[in-house]
Amino acid sequence: MGAPDVQAPPLKAYPVIPILQADAMAGSRPYVAAEKLNEAIGFPGKLVDGWQAKAVAKLGELRDRYRSLRVFLDACVHCGACTDKCHFFLGTGDPKNMPVARQELVRKVYRRYFTFAGKHFPKLVGAEDLTESVLEDWYRYFNQCSECRRCSVYCPYGIDTAEITMAAKEVMDSIGMGQKYTNEIIGKVHKIGNNLGLPGPALLDTLQTLEEEVKEETGQDVRFPLDEPGAEVLVVTPSADFFAEPHVFSLIGYAKVFHAAGIRWTLSSHASEAGNFGLFIGNYDQTRRIAMRVREAALELGVKRVVVGECGHAWRVAYSFWNTLIGPFDFLDARHPVPQHVCELTYDLIRRGAITLERERNDRRVVTFHDSCNVARASGMGGIPRGQFILPRAIVRAACTRFHDMAPETIHENTFCCGGGGGLLTDELVELRVKGALPRMEALKAVVDEHGVNFMATICAICKAQFAKVLPYYKFDMGMVGGVHQLVGDAIVLGRND
Ligand code: SF4
Ligand code: SF4
User: Fold this and answer.
1) Would the CB of 329 count as within 6 Å of ligand 2?
2) Is the C-beta atom of 149 inside 6 A of ligand 1?
3) Whose CA is nearest to atom 4 of ligand 2?
């Protein structure tokens, strides 16, 4: 199948605020989930009778449950600081993709039904009824937010548009207006155990094939164990790691690290997915049910440590929410009382000299690092301030001789989203995804031109899939993107036969 006919915007010197193009992305709309898909995960199959009153009641319920949502809806002073911070606005010029305008889609409804002024003088305060056309705008433009939280970094009040997006999605799911891609994936996790719908026997087969391939490459018996009771470590990783490229190279990297360090580990067929799309649709029950599989697998296998692979939003859920969602983790080893990121594990092994990396093995690569949004703005690592920026870069530098960061305003907490997060990684949104990647592509081009960068490492499965898709639109090689543990796997010294 050929690439969809989408014109990528020209790459410019960053930053350039686009000329406004009203409704430029009004046609961008993901498929609505079919009745069967919605019902399978407990949502109404299709738009319910009396949807307007039900949606308003749900919004009220969320406002009461989440104090943050109420503050975000009340606090905006329309200062405009966030307007040019969203990659989807920068890439499309559609004013409804300005974060404040996106928020206003919910805020005007909130004002109408929940504030005195909005109830009595709606026109004076910009309050509006939740009409069919407003609902349609919600569906289109909340599916043009990747929940990356970049805008919140620049807001003087810390207003988090992502939380407003999640609330809008939860309201829409509650009235039967769910999105196909996210809800289909959630259904697969419940039914089969992972986002890709890979059943246990196929997974076992894949892992055995990987063992054979790595044996051929290295001469070493590097294992990819599945459901092994008594292993010390349970690894929970995005299912794309099992076979998609470049993801699988990171799985090979994890396996080599465990082999070299002599640590017994296992994957689980019950929890064969780190991703948690419950977060993307803002639904607490789904997020908890999906996460619970990890606790169940850890207890069943009797592991002492839980390690999360290269998945941005999975690490956010693990780091920020697992303890309250599925904790306590008092059954783990007291030295590792909370789930760890695979970068924390590898960084510690490198620091202690427990594994050896030969950086020259990656000499063909000039590397940069893309901070994934959920890691950068919603998590930490290593128990040190800014560890989520320090640890992955330290590993990359230990595995490669040539490394160059992209411009400071595009990395760390200022990082630009890949354009595919938040449940948008679906083909019908490819135009949005290509345009939303523009700021990251501009920053990448600068280090390509200046330093000859030819590899962009990242620790997120969605970023990897999204970049592999959109890089060619900007005339870059799709093979430029890969994982941090791909670099580790290529540099690691495994033993005498290596
Ligand atoms: S959270 Fe990210 S995608 Fe959503 S409005 Fe803010 S900057 Fe844009
Ligand atoms: S930066 Fe914050 S206060 Fe200012 S317009 Fe944006 S959301 Fe409102």
Assistant:
1) no
2) yes
3) 79
Ligand 2 within 6 A of CB of 100: yes
pLDDT class of 496 with cuts at 50, 70, 90: very low
Q: Which residue is listed with tokens 């002024």?
A: 117
When pLDDT is cut at 50, 70 and 90, the band that residue 3 belongs to is low
- How does DSSP assign 8-75, residue by residue? PPPP-SSP-PPPP-TTTTTT--PPBPPHHHHHHTTS-SSPPTTHHHHHHHHHHHHHHH-HHHHHHHHH
The CATH 1.10.1060 domain(s) of the chain lie at 47-175
In tens, the pLDDT along 40-83 reads 999 999 999 999 999 999 999 999 999 999 999 999 999 999 99
Best residue among 103, 104, 161 to mutate for probing ligand 1's pocket (most ligand atoms within 8 Å of CB) is 161
Rounded to an integer, what distance in angstroms lies between the CA atom of residue 13 and that of residue 367?
21
Omega into 337 within 30° of 0, i.e. cis?
no
Q: Is the pLDDT of residue 1 over 50?
A: no
Q: Give per-residue pLDDT as tens, 393-423.
A: 999 999 999 999 999 999 999 999 999 999 9
Pocket test for ligand 2, best of 74, 100, 104, 145 (most atoms within 8 A of CB): 100
Distance CA 160, CA 153 (A): 8
Identify the nearest ligand to the CA of 161 by its number: 1
Q: What share of the chain is helix, strand, coil (3-state, %, to 5)?
A: 55, 5, 40
Helix (H) or strand (E) holding 455: strand 455-458
CA of 384 to the centre of ligand 2 (A): 30
Percent of the chain residues past pLDDT 90, beyond the cut: 93
**Of the options 1.10.287, 1.10.10, 1.10.1060, 3.30.300, the CATH number for the domain spanning 47-175:** 1.10.1060
